[in-house]
Amino acid sequence: MNQTNFTACPECDLLLNPAAPVVGDKAHCPRCGYLLQRPRKQSIERTFALSIAGLILMFPANLMPLVGIKMLGGAKDGTLWSGVVALFEEHLWGVAVLVFLSSILFPLLNIILSLLISAHLYFNQPNRHLAHWMRWLQHMDEWAMLEVYMLGIIVACVKLSATSELKFGFGLYAFVALLIVTGMLASSLDKVLFWRQIGYLRKKK
Amino acid sequence: MKSKKTALAQGFIRCHDCGCLSKQADNNSHCPLCGGRLHPRLPNSFQRTAALLLSAFCLYIPANVFPIMTVTRLGVGEPHTIIGGIMALIHGNMVPIAILVLVASILVPLLKLLGISLLLLNVHYRWQAHAKKWTILYRIIAFVGRWSMLDIFMISILVSLVDMGGMAQVIAGPAATAFAAVVVLTMLAAKNFDPRLIWDNQR
Predict the structure, then answer these.
(1) Which end of chain A is more exposed for a tag (fewer CB within 10 A), N or C?
(2) CA A67, CA A165: separation in Å to the nearest integer?
(3) pLDDT score recorded for residue B4
(4) Contacts of B133 in chain A (CB under 8 A)
(5) Number of domains chain A contains
(6) To 5 degrees, how large is the angle CA A114–CA A118–CA A122?
(7) Hey, which residues does A192 pair with through a beta bridge?
(8) What is the mean pLDDT of residues B25-52?
(9) Can you tell me the ipTM of this complex?
(10) Does the pLDDT value for residue B3 go beyond 70?
(11) For the CA atoms of chain A, what is the radius of gyration?
């Protein structure tokens, strides 16, 4: 076949012998310093567990109010979705779609894809879509911006705190928990290992 | 002796998606491991990055000139530009938040626009020095890009929360769309830039 035992650095294309780092080690490219692989303890199991936890947390974080406001006699609750709707009503469709994608849809798809892939790897089930899912997951990674949204919430709250009374809803706690879970998910998912396992399953079939 | 040649120069292509390395041949346009299309480098990397960067530069002007939001209180209010919003924060004695917004919505987009321009110049004029430092610049730009969305998310929260009819209202302005477009375009430009082009030029 055309396959070889060498690898190459994705950022400087240096031809390398494959590194076999153990848990706790990091493999860097000797020329440009790119982090090639950072193996994690029980990567597949942890990804599986964390994506289930993330999927559960997705519901309260999206459905329950994040922040409530009391101002000049009026009161209002804000959810992730109400921000999108408000932008839409002001005819900023482009911004509304962008906010919807980066704060709701992509984080959700990210978790669902991680769940699907890690479940298949955990139970050793070959599936012809695995490579597609993994590819989508990699492309979507950058566009899920929950942590940036969190910072947006903080800045908005500080701005409002001078003139109005704020109340933090249960949704915000779920959102923070979701943030922690997705952060752990991203660091437990070892891409090199995942692709290798997908390759094995493909050959086994 | 350690070979300093790139994989491509020795006839190997690395799959962009799964990282599998395969021997270059006329007939293998698909990766043997994951089945994705193989390209030696990101296709038309330089041209795509340049086009996206140019659009981002053009939109950066309306994003800073037009008002990004209007805060109305008891019927009176004036539109704020991005810089105006930061000034308002400083006058309201919220300096740390003002610095945060300054970094996220002015410095980061500017740094990205200039940084990607420099990377393109580097590739075009085949600068030889400090290839590793240029790669690190690319990494910083790719990492930092998403944080500019801070302003957009903040506006979305303010618009939905502060909506008390005539009493108090926040209305997003036309600069929000332009600013969001700048963020997305610079992110796409960074994604389309292939850092291996820097290393290909090294003699």
Answers:
(1) N
(2) 10
(3) 61
(4) none
(5) 2
(6) 170
(7) none
(8) 82
(9) 0.87
(10) no
(11) 21
Residues A93 and A112: beta-carbon distance below 8 Å? no
A172: CATH: 1.20.140
Per-residue pLDDT of chain A (205 residues), as tens digits, is: 456 778 888 888 888 888 788 888 888 888 888 888 888 888 999 999 999 999 999 999 999 888 888 876 777 888 889 889 999 988 889 999 999 999 999 999 999 999 999 999 999 888 888 888 999 999 888 899 999 999 999 988 888 887 788 888 889 999 999 999 999 999 898 888 888 888 888 877 6
Those residues with Cβ within 8 angstroms of residue A28's Cβ, 6 or more apart along the chain or in another chain: A34, A35, A36
Question: Do A11 and A89 belong together in one domain?
Answer: no
| Host domain of residue B49 | 44-200
What are the backbone dihedrals phi and psi of residue A184, each rounded to the nearest 5 degrees, phi first?
Answer: -65, -35
Amino acid at residue number B30: H
Q: Quick one: B27 and B72 in the same domain?
A: no
What does pTM read for this prediction?
0.89
Same domain, A31 and A74: no
* CA pair distance A92, A81, nearest whole angstrom: 15
Question: Is A203 in CB contact (< 8 Å) with chain B?
Answer: no
- Residue A148 and residue A76 share a domain: yes
> Which residue range forms the structural domain that includes residue A117?
42-204
Enumerate long-range contacts of B75-84, CB under 8 Å, 24 or more apart.
B75/B166, B77/B169, B79/B173, B80/B173, B81/B175, B82/B106, B82/B151, B82/B175, B82/B179
- Same domain, yes or no, for B63 and B15? no
Identify the residue among A90, A93, A95, A153 best suited for mutation to test binding to B, counting B beta carbons within 10 A and taking the highest. A95
pLDDT (0 to 100) of residue B27: 61
Do A51 and A141 sit in the same domain of this protein? yes
Q: Are residues B170 and B71 in the same domain?
A: yes
Q: How far is A72 from chain B (nearest CA, A)?
A: 7
Task: Tell me what pLDDT residue B26 has.
Answer: 61
Contact B10, A4 (CB under 8 A): no
Which residues of chain B from 45 to 104 reach within 8 Å of chain A, CB to CB? 89, 92, 94, 97, 100-101, 104
In sequence order, what DSSP letters do the residues of A98-166 get, joined into one string?
HHHIIIIIHHHHHHHHHHHHHHHHHTT---TTHHHHHHHHHHHGGG--HHHHHHHHHHHHHHHHTTSEE
